[in-house]
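Quick one: structure tokens for this chain, please?
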Amino acid sequence: MAQRSAISRERMVRQLSDHGIRHPAVLQAMRSVPRERFVEEALQAKAYDDSALPIGEKQTISQPWIVARMAELTDPDGKGRVLEVGTGSGYHAAVLAGLFELVYTVERSP
């Protein structure tokens, strides 16, 4: 499964690049974070599809392109702090952790 996930993650990063994501650190952060760990086991085979997936509590994990684009718009340089409101699954926070010194994130659902 780990090998398949790594291949799927690399395919996802190529698709992100093909769709305009250019920031090298963002692409590396997306490559580094195993998205399948942030979704239910039954959905892990779809973890690297460019689609939102349900995570419970009437919430979804955002599609990879949206996560990458939001991260890219912050113009990360490996320094500084960022606040994320709406942690959800924690996937976006994990991506941001590869781009900033400190990530604060809050979620209304326990």
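The chain has four helices and four strands.
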